[in-house]
Amino acid sequence: MKYALIGCGMISPNHINAALANDLEIVALCDLVEENRNKALELIPKEKRENINLYENYFDMLDIEHPDIVAIALGSGLKRRLSIDCMKAGANVIVEKPIALSLEDADAMISTAKEYGVKLIVNHQLRFGETVRALKAESQSGNFGKLLHGTVQVRRNRNKAYFDAGKWRGTWDNDGGTLMNQCIHYTDILQWIMCSEVEEVFAYTDRMIHPYIEAEDLGLALLKFKNGAYGIIEGTVNTYPRNLSDSIAIFGEEGTVSLRGKTLSDVEAWEFKTGPKSRDDAIRAFGIEHMGSGHAPLYKYAIRAVNGNDDALCPAEESRSALELVLAIYQSASEGRPVRLPLSRGATTDFVGRFDKKL
Ligand SMILES: NC(=O)c1ccc[n+]([C@@H]2O[C@H](COP(=O)([O-])OP(=O)(O)OC[C@H]3O[C@@H](n4cnc5c(N)ncnc54)[C@H](O)[C@@H]3O)[C@@H](O)[C@H]2O)c1
Known about the structure:
The chain has eleven helices and 14 strands. By secondary structure, the chain is of the alpha/beta class. It has two domains: about 120 residues, 3-Layer(aba) Sandwich (Rossmann fold); about 200 residues, Dihydrodipicolinate Reductase, domain 2 (2-Layer Sandwich), CATH 3.30.360.10.
């Protein structure tokens, strides 16, 4: 399958390695910045570089290369336009998280995929870890009993150099704040593992120590799920002096799971009254396939989806739900009241100027 990457920035090595690991035929690397295109090319073994063309303009790339799969890894405000252009050119799209920054953009992307008969897969790679899939299977099979509450913590450190490295970072029209960028993997899997969408949210967000960005550097939210369970989201880029481990914990009447680590593979607790009583037992009992970690398993899944296999593990509609939850959190924090979902509309640009009084 012919593969092209648009956006050769910080996350591009993960995409290139995932394409290589899955034997995709890399035909093009595309970036506005020549140095970034060249750096990305150097990541590819010499013997595979010969047939790779470098492009500044992605329309030229689409016209000449006709890729089967295009990965899009750039500022989130551009994702709608680029994804739709690629899908209209017949390419299946892997787009970095978050899917987009407004519900309208996400809907347009999802409906274009349907109209053109191509796949749109959002890079929520946390879903693919074996431990996380085993936890989802425990939850789906009812082994928690009554689900009570779930929590996620994303405690990162992002300094000025990080934000200076991409003008789009921390802006309302191209990124959003820590909940939309660093935390969205977790708003996604929390809803997925609780097997329920969120009904109502109350939140605080603030820009505490990053006056040079527009959006929040701290977000704290309380959730009520449609199935009666509750949730807590804590996301920050203010952790001194470095990242702490990410974590998720799910509490049911007859089960508790607590996971930590970058891929949530460190088990702090895996307790069940009935059903598999350890992560390894759950992996065996539920037949969880080993897919590896990081971007490679998502690529494996995307290739299978393009080949006609089911795409139920990470549907774009659920990526839209993760976006909707963050937008509801923003709305609640901005208006100082609980907000009910579903939202009729929402966009990060609704919050332009929210923290400006502090500048
Ligand atoms: N899945 C993850 O865990 C993960 C981790 C980091 C970043 N991301 C996501 O990946 C995306 C990119 O993040 P990044 O940190 O790599 O950004 P970055 O700023 O480092 O890189 C973006 C690149 O896109 C290029 N670009 C911008 N507009 C372009 C255009 N029109 N055509 C071609 N190239 C263009 C820029 O020149 C730059 O090289 C974001 O959506 C981010 O949220 C995901």
